[in-house]
Each structure stands twice: as C-alpha cells, then as structure tokens.
Amino acid sequence: MQPTRRAFLGGGLGLLGLGVAGCATSPAAPSSAAPTSSGPSRLLVVGAPARALTRDPARALDVESFRLIRQVFETLLGVDADTGAPTPRLAERHEESDGGRLHTFHLVSGVVFDDGEPCDAAAVVANIERWAAAPAPVDGTVAPPSSFVSAFGGYAGDADSAFAGVEARGELEVRLRLHSPRRHLAAALASPAFAISSPASWDRTVDVDGSEVTTPAGTGPYRWADAAETAELTRAHPGASGATILVPSARHRGSDPAAYPVAVQAWGRASVRLRELRRGTADVIDVVAPGQLRPLVEAGTQVLPRDPLGVLYVGMNLDHPRVRSQYLRQAIAYAVDRPRIAGSDVFLEGTRLAHDLVPPSLGVGDEEARRYDVNPGRAREFLRLAGYDGEPLEFLYPAGTARPSLPEPERVYAMVARDLGAVGMHIVPVPVPEDQDYLHAVVSRPTRALHLMGRTGDYRDPHAFLEPFARSGRAETGYRNPRVVEDVDAAAAETDDDTRRALFRRVVRAMALDLPALPLVYPISALATGPRVASYPTSPQLDEPFSRVRLTEG
C-alpha cells in the first residue's frame, strides 16, 4: 500500500524536525560560519503571515504585534528557552513575600531606553500604573480583551482586581502589592503585553504609510528604524519595501546584541511567502502550509516545527438570540467532524484533535469532561429541541491571512460550515479582510453567531487559556458562569499543585458542557529558512529573538 501524501510529507517534516530539535528548545547554537557585521549589505528578511496591528506593548493583543514587540522591548522577567519558565530580564532578581501578596523586583543597573531615558524604578512603576488604568470608554465600541485584567482579575479599583498598588523604592527596586496571591503572575509578566517602554515616548508617533503610528522606545536588541534608515535599507534591498524595519540598538546591554537589520514583511498568502523564499527575497517564512512541504523538502530547505502550545476553536456568541440556546451549541458540537479537520492536509503532521480549550502539555485535561463525537442525527435532534428553524447564522473568519494556530482560515471555515449546513443550519459566511483587526471585527459585530479563533499561549499556564473565557475576554463569547470565575480565581491563588489542577479541571468540565467555544485542534506550526540562515530559535510561545538568528558568511 502506498503511503498517503500527508504521511509522506509529515515524515519529511519529522525528519527535518529531528535535525533541528535543538533549535526548538534551546538557545540557537552559533554556526561554524561566524555572523557578519551589520549594515545595508546584510538584512534579515522575515515573511510573516499577517501585519502587526500596533507597536505599543500596552495595546497589543495579536501575534504579529508581539513578534515585533519582543525584538524592541523587554519584560521584567523573560522566558527560559528550555523550559518556558520565567527567568530574569530587566529584573535581575524577583522575590515573593507576604504569602505571595508582595512581589519585589530588583532592576538591572544602567539600562537605558533607546530614546536615552533611564529604565529605572520610576519608569517601571509608570508602566504598571498605565497597564492598571481602565481605558476610557468610547461610545459605540466594545471593550477589547485585556492582558492586565487576565493577569490581575481587573483594573485598579475594580472589585475583582488583585492589584493593590505599586511603588518605587530607590532607583532600582519596585514593589508590586496584591490583595490576593496570583500563582501565575511571574509567568504572565514574561508576556510581551507587559513589556516595559519609555514613558517619555508614549506620545511619540511616526508616519507609517500615511498614518501616524504610536512608536514607543524600548530597551531590546532592536529599535524602530527612522525614516532615513528605512529609505537607505530599502534602496539597498528593494525586497524590504513596505516592510517594518528594525535596526540594532546601540544602547542595548544584553548578551545577544543584534547583528543585522531586520525587515518584517506581511505576506498573507502562503503561496506568496513560499515564492519570496524561493526567490531569495525572504530568509525566513512563518506558517508553512502542508502543501508546501514537498517542494521545501525536495529543495533541501530547513523546516523548523514548533512544539504545540495553542488551540484552534469555533467561538460562539452566547448573546446571540439563537446561539444562547445550549441545545443549539450542542448541535454544533455534534455536527462538526473534528477528527476529519484534525486529519486534513490543512494542518501539519502532529496536529491533534482538541477536546479541551487547554493544550494537553499543561496537564489539566479531564477525561470525565463532556465529549462530542460526530453524530449528525443527534445534531438534528438538538436543533429541533432548540427550536431552530433555518434562521441565518453569521460565521466570521479571517481572509487572506494566516496565524500559527490557523494556517488556512478559508479552508477550515469551509469544512466547518459544510458540516453545519449538512444538518440543516443556514450559515452565512462573513470573511474579515486582512487589513482589518480581526478580533475587533469579531467583538464589535453583535449579529455574529460563530467565529474562528486561535489562542497561542504567551506563557505556560492553564490560566492563560481559561481565564479569557471566564472574564477578560468575555466580549468574544458573552460567556458568563460565576462558578467558573470563582474556580479560576481560586486556582490563581492556590499554592498546592494538585488542588490547583483539580480546580482547572473543574473549569474544563464546565466549559465542555457550557460550550462558549468548540475546540477543534491543537495545531502544529512551522517556519522555513533560506540558505543564508545558519540557525533560528523556535519557541512554543513564539518568543523568537531575531538577535539570536545567525546568518552564514556571504
């Protein structure tokens, strides 16, 4: 019997993965060819699958903004490349006391933002106070999800917030006080959403394609290129035209100084990314599609898979008059052939069927949680119980773009919509163009019924996946379950590992029954590198510093 196309290609990826396994879990080893000096003659070009939506860490929620923010800014704590655990970064030492209610950060001395301002305790306090302040309400808009609310339970002054205050003690000590302990806080503070920027630069803007874009200063290995630098690099490298340009920061004091300028291009179509890699325009392309593996393998291209730390799901709007029926949500769960989706050639080999909204590696999956096997007959019966009579249901999905958790949105939508249509549901496609903020499009459209969404873990803790459904990301699904909120908060304060896992498992069971979202798969993502790239540091959390990329001579 001949092997299937997917098995063959998956085998090719597996072999390549064995060859680069160290890149995925450990610091990138220097190649035998030493990196060359920076300058217009050397430029690393990265082909991203979508555009970044902001340069301001305090406003960022999307993967592509985080990709850039990780290069320009630093957090108080970092991420260990081997374990994913928090490590020192801007804070050389972090201490917990008072039963986890006091966090003391001892800052590295002499750190300077790229605008020349000191990164001292006063600057860090200003950042934390900025995060903690609730945004001013804007008429007619829905409040977006908040990383601060997810980590702390609410903004400063909110009844549910654990945040009690922050103060500077001298120039290099910051004390963060909590009303109640937050077990996940150290890990959460390594997220790029909590990167430290220069308060003096918060109102600084630059012209980007005719729009004024807020462009704060950071302490990272890179800084945003100015207009003259962008023009110089674009003249020397026409392939950088229209890209976001990062240049090495002379003020960075880290152990991984940036070696080359970087151009990050947003190429939404997988075919365009592959074409630019083949042409030699791109050195790295992210989100490799399974159909591209054969030509990449045959050309001897390095394909670097990431360990999975994400979930793709169908979000459901529980504020919708039809979707608020649990019978209808269960009908959706029984109708969608999720094993077929997981085994399709949309996803790379190693992608697994998802039963829960938390990746298995985080250890809170529950075999007793409600499971939904494919059963169209049962789906039709639940539609009858829901009183559904063919009313149109809007289904949003991103178009012309990709995510590490969602390589081909149009095809995933088509598979899900076909299954729902087969049991009698009237699905109305609502593609969201690549030039729109997809999350904003979802939460600001009250008539939506369903949407595709992926979540990648910014830090390795179940809280990062479950809390947004319970509270901070409620605008996405309209899910309200006070018991779930209580259990999430109890887990946040729990010091015993077994008790904490039990609380999270109870949340998993509740969400499997309530169905604010239907998990589809735990996706594997991968990137490909051109011949100039000697090593590239992959990460499940997408914490991939360009300063650790090594190019060959030539």
TrEMBL record:
Residues 545-554 have a biased composition (Basic and acidic residues). PROSITE patterns: PROKAR_LIPOPROTEIN (PS51257), TAT (PS51318). It is found in: Cell envelope. Keywords: Signal, Transport. Residues 533-554 are annotated as: Disordered. GO terms for cellular component: ATP-binding cassette (ABC) transporter complex; cell envelope; periplasmic space. GO terms for molecular function: peptide transmembrane transporter activity. InterPro entries: Peptide/Ni-bd, SBP_5, SBP_5_dom, TAT_signal. It comes from the Bacteria. Residues 86-474 form the Solute-binding protein family domain. This is ABC transporter substrate-binding protein. It comes from Micrococcus yunnanensis.
